Amino acid sequence: MTVRDEIEQLKQEKNAVILAHYYVPPEVQEIADYIGDSFYLSKAAAGLGQQTIVFCGVSFMGESAKILNPEKKVLMPDARADCAMAHMADAETIRRMREEYEDLAVVCYINSTAELKRHSDVCVTSANAVGIVKALPNRNIFFIPDRNLARFVAEQVPEKHVIFNEGFCPVHEQMSLVEVENAKAAHPDAEVLTHPECPEKLCRMSDYVGSTSGIIQYAGRSSAREFIVCTENGVRYELEKRYPEKRFYFTDTEPVCRDMKTVTLEKVLHVLKTGENEVTVSDLVRKEAKKALERMLELAR
Ligand code: 13P
Ligand code: SF4
After folding, report:
1. Of the ligands numbered here, which is closest to the C-alpha atom of 36?
2. 69 lines ligand 1 (CB under 6 A)
3. Most buried by CB count within 10 Å: which residue of 87, 184, 220, 260?
4. Which of 129, 34, 115, 24 is nearest to 78 (CA)?
5. Does the pTM of the predicted model rise above 0.85?
6. Are 190 and 228 in contact (CB under 8 A)?
7. CB burial class (10 A; 0-12, 13-18, 19+) of residue 218?
Protein backbone atom coordinates (compact mmCIF):
# COMPACT_ATOMS: atom_id res chain seq x y z
CA MET A 1 0.00 0.00 0.00
CA THR A 2 1.32 3.51 -0.78
CA VAL A 3 1.56 6.22 1.88
CA ARG A 4 -1.38 7.96 0.21
CA ASP A 5 -3.51 4.80 0.33
CA GLU A 6 -2.66 4.29 3.99
CA ILE A 7 -3.61 7.91 4.77
CA GLU A 8 -6.90 7.45 2.94
CA GLN A 9 -7.69 4.27 4.85
CA LEU A 10 -6.80 5.71 8.26
CA LYS A 11 -8.80 8.85 7.53
CA GLN A 12 -11.93 6.70 7.15
CA GLU A 13 -11.13 4.48 10.13
CA LYS A 14 -10.46 7.42 12.46
CA ASN A 15 -13.17 9.72 11.12
CA ALA A 16 -10.50 12.31 10.27
CA VAL A 17 -10.34 15.25 7.87
CA ILE A 18 -7.22 16.87 6.42
CA LEU A 19 -6.86 20.65 6.03
CA ALA A 20 -3.89 22.16 4.19
CA HIS A 21 -2.62 25.68 3.54
CA TYR A 22 -1.48 26.58 0.00
CA TYR A 23 2.10 26.88 1.28
CA VAL A 24 2.61 23.21 2.21
CA PRO A 25 4.30 20.93 -0.37
CA PRO A 26 2.17 19.94 -3.43
CA GLU A 27 1.95 16.24 -2.51
CA VAL A 28 0.40 17.22 0.83
CA GLN A 29 -2.06 19.63 -0.85
CA GLU A 30 -3.06 16.72 -3.11
CA ILE A 31 -4.31 14.55 -0.24
CA ALA A 32 -6.13 17.35 1.62
CA ASP A 33 -9.92 17.52 1.89
CA TYR A 34 -9.77 21.29 2.21
CA ILE A 35 -6.99 23.44 0.70
CA GLY A 36 -7.01 27.19 1.09
CA ASP A 37 -5.70 30.37 2.61
CA SER A 38 -5.94 31.18 6.30
CA PHE A 39 -9.45 32.62 6.10
CA TYR A 40 -10.90 29.76 4.08
CA LEU A 41 -9.34 27.22 6.43
CA SER A 42 -10.59 28.93 9.59
CA LYS A 43 -14.12 29.03 8.14
CA ALA A 44 -13.83 25.38 7.12
CA ALA A 45 -12.51 24.40 10.56
CA ALA A 46 -15.55 25.99 12.21
CA GLY A 47 -18.02 23.67 10.49
CA LEU A 48 -16.51 20.19 10.26
CA GLY A 49 -18.34 16.96 11.12
CA GLN A 50 -15.29 14.73 11.66
CA GLN A 51 -13.86 14.01 15.10
CA THR A 52 -10.19 14.45 14.17
CA ILE A 53 -8.66 17.35 12.22
CA VAL A 54 -5.16 16.97 10.76
CA PHE A 55 -3.93 20.51 10.12
CA CYS A 56 -1.18 20.72 7.51
CA GLY A 57 0.15 24.16 8.30
CA VAL A 58 1.81 26.02 11.16
CA SER A 59 0.93 26.12 14.84
CA PHE A 60 -1.34 29.19 14.91
CA MET A 61 -3.59 27.41 12.39
CA GLY A 62 -3.87 24.27 14.51
CA GLU A 63 -4.49 26.41 17.59
CA SER A 64 -7.28 28.32 15.86
CA ALA A 65 -8.90 25.06 14.75
CA LYS A 66 -8.71 23.77 18.34
CA ILE A 67 -10.14 27.01 19.76
CA LEU A 68 -13.11 26.72 17.40
CA ASN A 69 -13.49 22.95 18.05
CA PRO A 70 -12.57 22.24 21.67
CA GLU A 71 -14.26 18.83 21.63
CA LYS A 72 -12.23 17.64 18.62
CA LYS A 73 -8.76 16.23 18.32
CA VAL A 74 -6.49 18.55 16.26
CA LEU A 75 -3.22 16.99 15.10
CA MET A 76 -0.20 18.76 13.62
CA PRO A 77 1.97 16.63 11.30
CA ASP A 78 5.03 18.55 12.58
CA ALA A 79 4.65 19.98 16.06
CA ARG A 80 7.55 22.38 15.50
CA ALA A 81 6.07 24.04 12.39
CA ASP A 82 5.58 27.58 13.64
CA CYS A 83 5.17 31.08 12.22
CA ALA A 84 7.88 33.48 13.37
CA MET A 85 5.56 36.46 13.00
CA ALA A 86 2.95 34.90 15.31
CA HIS A 87 5.17 35.82 18.29
CA MET A 88 6.06 39.38 17.26
CA ALA A 89 3.72 41.28 19.58
CA ASP A 90 3.19 41.29 23.33
CA ALA A 91 0.42 41.63 25.89
CA GLU A 92 2.19 44.42 27.77
CA THR A 93 2.23 46.73 24.71
CA ILE A 94 -1.46 45.95 24.10
CA ARG A 95 -2.20 46.93 27.70
CA ARG A 96 -0.32 50.22 27.33
CA MET A 97 -2.14 51.03 24.08
CA ARG A 98 -5.50 50.38 25.70
CA GLU A 99 -4.56 52.85 28.44
CA GLU A 100 -3.54 55.47 25.91
CA TYR A 101 -6.57 55.24 23.59
CA GLU A 102 -10.00 54.94 25.12
CA ASP A 103 -11.80 53.64 22.05
CA LEU A 104 -8.99 51.30 20.93
CA ALA A 105 -9.75 48.13 18.96
CA VAL A 106 -6.93 45.58 19.01
CA VAL A 107 -7.02 43.89 15.62
CA CYS A 108 -5.04 40.70 15.51
CA TYR A 109 -3.84 39.10 12.29
CA ILE A 110 -4.72 35.42 12.61
CA ASN A 111 -0.96 34.72 12.23
CA SER A 112 -0.52 35.11 15.98
CA THR A 113 -0.40 32.93 19.07
CA ALA A 114 -3.59 32.07 20.99
CA GLU A 115 -2.15 34.14 23.83
CA LEU A 116 -2.13 37.26 21.61
CA LYS A 117 -5.60 36.55 20.26
CA ARG A 118 -6.80 36.37 23.81
CA HIS A 119 -5.87 40.02 24.38
CA SER A 120 -7.43 41.18 21.10
CA ASP A 121 -10.88 42.36 20.10
CA VAL A 122 -11.07 40.77 16.70
CA CYS A 123 -8.98 38.57 14.43
CA VAL A 124 -8.49 39.20 10.72
CA THR A 125 -6.75 37.43 7.86
CA SER A 126 -5.17 39.05 4.83
CA ALA A 127 -8.39 38.24 2.91
CA ASN A 128 -10.74 40.16 5.19
CA ALA A 129 -8.62 42.69 7.15
CA VAL A 130 -9.68 45.76 5.14
CA GLY A 131 -13.41 44.97 5.36
CA ILE A 132 -13.29 44.18 9.06
CA VAL A 133 -11.30 47.27 10.06
CA LYS A 134 -13.75 49.36 7.99
CA ALA A 135 -16.71 47.77 9.77
CA LEU A 136 -15.40 48.39 13.30
CA PRO A 137 -16.97 51.32 15.16
CA ASN A 138 -13.58 52.28 16.70
CA ARG A 139 -11.39 54.97 15.13
CA ASN A 140 -8.15 53.92 16.83
CA ILE A 141 -6.89 50.54 15.70
CA PHE A 142 -3.83 48.76 17.10
CA PHE A 143 -2.96 46.26 14.40
CA ILE A 144 -0.77 43.32 15.51
CA PRO A 145 1.61 41.69 14.69
CA ASP A 146 2.30 42.54 11.00
CA ARG A 147 3.39 46.09 10.13
CA ASN A 148 3.13 45.42 6.38
CA LEU A 149 -0.46 44.23 6.46
CA ALA A 150 -1.19 47.12 8.86
CA ARG A 151 0.16 49.60 6.34
CA PHE A 152 -1.88 48.02 3.54
CA VAL A 153 -5.05 48.26 5.67
CA ALA A 154 -4.28 51.85 6.74
CA GLU A 155 -4.03 52.87 3.08
CA GLN A 156 -7.38 51.30 2.22
CA VAL A 157 -9.17 52.67 5.30
CA PRO A 158 -7.86 56.26 5.63
CA GLU A 159 -10.70 57.26 7.97
CA LYS A 160 -9.10 55.14 10.75
CA HIS A 161 -6.02 55.84 12.83
CA VAL A 162 -4.03 52.62 12.50
CA ILE A 163 -1.21 52.14 15.01
CA PHE A 164 1.50 49.81 13.73
CA ASN A 165 3.34 47.09 15.60
CA GLU A 166 6.83 46.14 14.46
CA GLY A 167 6.19 42.52 13.43
CA PHE A 168 6.79 41.07 9.98
CA CYS A 169 6.87 37.81 8.07
CA PRO A 170 10.53 36.95 7.43
CA VAL A 171 9.63 35.18 4.17
CA HIS A 172 7.68 38.05 2.57
CA GLU A 173 9.75 40.83 4.15
CA GLN A 174 12.92 39.50 2.52
CA MET A 175 11.55 39.51 -1.01
CA SER A 176 13.91 41.57 -3.11
CA LEU A 177 12.62 44.51 -5.15
CA VAL A 178 15.58 44.14 -7.52
CA GLU A 179 14.70 40.51 -8.19
CA VAL A 180 11.09 41.44 -8.93
CA GLU A 181 12.30 44.19 -11.28
CA ASN A 182 14.58 41.65 -12.98
CA ALA A 183 11.64 39.26 -13.38
CA LYS A 184 9.57 42.11 -14.84
CA ALA A 185 12.38 42.96 -17.29
CA ALA A 186 12.48 39.31 -18.39
CA HIS A 187 8.66 39.11 -18.69
CA PRO A 188 7.47 42.63 -19.52
CA ASP A 189 3.87 41.55 -20.20
CA ALA A 190 3.52 39.79 -16.87
CA GLU A 191 1.39 41.29 -14.12
CA VAL A 192 2.89 41.47 -10.62
CA LEU A 193 0.73 39.87 -7.91
CA THR A 194 1.80 40.52 -4.34
CA HIS A 195 0.83 39.44 -0.84
CA PRO A 196 0.27 42.35 1.60
CA GLU A 197 2.88 40.86 3.97
CA CYS A 198 5.46 42.17 1.46
CA PRO A 199 7.27 45.50 1.95
CA GLU A 200 5.71 48.76 0.74
CA LYS A 201 7.97 49.27 -2.29
CA LEU A 202 7.01 45.91 -3.67
CA CYS A 203 3.28 46.51 -3.12
CA ARG A 204 3.56 49.88 -4.88
CA MET A 205 4.94 48.40 -8.11
CA SER A 206 2.32 45.62 -8.18
CA ASP A 207 -0.75 45.24 -10.37
CA TYR A 208 -2.60 43.48 -7.58
CA VAL A 209 -2.08 43.16 -3.82
CA GLY A 210 -4.11 40.60 -1.89
CA SER A 211 -4.26 37.42 0.12
CA THR A 212 -3.20 34.06 -1.24
CA SER A 213 -6.73 33.27 -2.40
CA GLY A 214 -7.08 36.83 -3.72
CA ILE A 215 -3.98 36.29 -5.86
CA ILE A 216 -5.35 32.99 -7.17
CA GLN A 217 -8.72 34.53 -8.04
CA TYR A 218 -7.15 37.62 -9.63
CA ALA A 219 -4.97 35.44 -11.89
CA GLY A 220 -8.16 33.78 -13.13
CA ARG A 221 -10.11 36.92 -13.94
CA SER A 222 -7.20 38.93 -15.41
CA SER A 223 -6.80 38.93 -19.18
CA ALA A 224 -3.01 38.75 -18.72
CA ARG A 225 -1.39 35.42 -19.55
CA GLU A 226 1.77 35.79 -17.46
CA PHE A 227 2.25 36.67 -13.82
CA ILE A 228 5.11 37.34 -11.42
CA VAL A 229 3.94 35.97 -8.10
CA CYS A 230 5.29 37.64 -4.95
CA THR A 231 4.35 35.24 -2.22
CA GLU A 232 5.35 31.83 -0.88
CA ASN A 233 6.11 29.41 -3.72
CA GLY A 234 3.62 26.73 -2.54
CA VAL A 235 0.87 28.70 -4.28
CA ARG A 236 2.34 27.71 -7.68
CA TYR A 237 0.69 24.27 -7.40
CA GLU A 238 -2.86 25.69 -7.25
CA LEU A 239 -2.16 28.39 -9.86
CA GLU A 240 -0.83 25.90 -12.41
CA LYS A 241 -3.59 23.40 -11.67
CA ARG A 242 -6.36 25.98 -12.15
CA TYR A 243 -4.90 27.90 -15.07
CA PRO A 244 -2.73 25.56 -17.18
CA GLU A 245 -2.85 28.02 -20.10
CA LYS A 246 -1.21 30.81 -18.03
CA ARG A 247 2.43 31.20 -16.94
CA PHE A 248 3.59 31.93 -13.39
CA TYR A 249 7.05 33.19 -12.49
CA PHE A 250 8.71 33.67 -9.12
CA THR A 251 11.79 35.68 -8.19
CA ASP A 252 15.17 33.94 -8.62
CA THR A 253 15.31 33.47 -4.87
CA GLU A 254 11.95 31.82 -4.41
CA PRO A 255 10.13 32.76 -1.21
CA VAL A 256 9.91 29.61 0.89
CA CYS A 257 8.39 29.24 4.35
CA ARG A 258 10.60 26.52 5.84
CA ASP A 259 8.06 25.76 8.54
CA MET A 260 5.26 25.11 6.04
CA LYS A 261 7.60 22.86 4.08
CA THR A 262 8.29 20.62 7.07
CA VAL A 263 4.88 19.02 6.55
CA THR A 264 5.29 15.72 4.66
CA LEU A 265 3.00 12.82 3.72
CA GLU A 266 4.95 10.55 6.08
CA LYS A 267 4.28 12.91 9.00
CA VAL A 268 0.58 13.09 8.13
CA LEU A 269 0.47 9.30 8.15
CA HIS A 270 2.39 9.14 11.43
CA VAL A 271 0.01 11.41 13.36
CA LEU A 272 -3.02 9.64 11.93
CA LYS A 273 -1.57 6.32 13.14
CA THR A 274 -0.38 7.45 16.55
CA GLY A 275 -2.51 10.47 17.50
CA GLU A 276 0.72 12.29 18.40
CA ASN A 277 1.20 16.08 18.24
CA GLU A 278 -2.23 16.87 19.52
CA VAL A 279 -2.86 20.63 19.90
CA THR A 280 -3.82 21.75 23.39
CA VAL A 281 -5.02 25.19 24.47
CA SER A 282 -5.91 25.89 28.10
CA ASP A 283 -9.60 26.55 28.81
CA LEU A 284 -8.97 30.12 29.92
CA VAL A 285 -6.97 31.07 26.81
CA ARG A 286 -9.36 29.22 24.53
CA LYS A 287 -12.49 30.94 25.84
CA GLU A 288 -10.98 34.42 25.51
CA ALA A 289 -9.26 33.84 22.16
CA LYS A 290 -12.45 32.33 20.75
CA LYS A 291 -14.28 35.65 21.05
CA ALA A 292 -11.82 37.36 18.68
CA LEU A 293 -12.00 34.50 16.17
CA GLU A 294 -15.78 34.33 16.27
CA ARG A 295 -16.07 38.06 15.84
CA MET A 296 -13.97 37.76 12.68
CA LEU A 297 -16.22 35.03 11.33
CA GLU A 298 -19.30 37.15 12.09
CA LEU A 299 -17.96 40.41 10.64
CA ALA A 300 -16.63 38.70 7.52
CA ARG A 301 -19.97 37.08 6.74
P1 13P B 1 -3.06 34.07 3.84
O2 13P B 1 -3.30 32.61 3.97
O3 13P B 1 -4.09 34.87 4.58
O4 13P B 1 -2.90 34.52 2.44
O5 13P B 1 -1.72 34.40 4.62
C6 13P B 1 -0.51 33.95 4.21
C7 13P B 1 0.33 33.43 5.27
O8 13P B 1 1.40 33.88 5.50
C9 13P B 1 -0.15 32.31 6.00
O10 13P B 1 0.76 32.06 6.95
FE1 SF4 C 1 4.36 32.88 9.06
FE2 SF4 C 1 5.44 34.03 6.94
FE3 SF4 C 1 5.48 31.37 7.13
FE4 SF4 C 1 3.16 32.68 6.70
S5 SF4 C 1 4.93 32.58 5.32
S6 SF4 C 1 3.53 31.02 8.16
S7 SF4 C 1 3.50 34.56 7.88
S8 SF4 C 1 6.54 32.83 8.49
Report:
1. 1
2. no
3. 260
4. 24
5. yes
6. yes
7. middle
User: How close is the Cα of 145 to the center of ligand 2, in Å?
Assistant: 12
Ranges assigned E (strand) in 146-210: 161-163, 191-194, 208-209
Measured torsion, CA atoms of residues 21, 23, 28, 34, in degrees rounded to the nearest 10? 20
Q: Is 249 helix (H, G, I), strand (E, B) or coil?
A: strand
| CB of 255 closer than 8 Å to CB of 172 | yes
Task: Say how many Å lie between the CA of residue 298 and the centre of ligand 1.
Answer: 20
Q: Sign of dihedral through CA atoms 38, 171, 155, 96?
A: positive
Vertex 294 angle, CA 272 and 140, to 5° = 130
Q: What is the pLDDT of residues 171-200, one digit of tens each?
A: 999 999 999 999 999 999 999 999 999 999
What tens digit of pLDDT does each residue of 269-300 get? 999 999 999 999 999 999 999 999 999 999 99
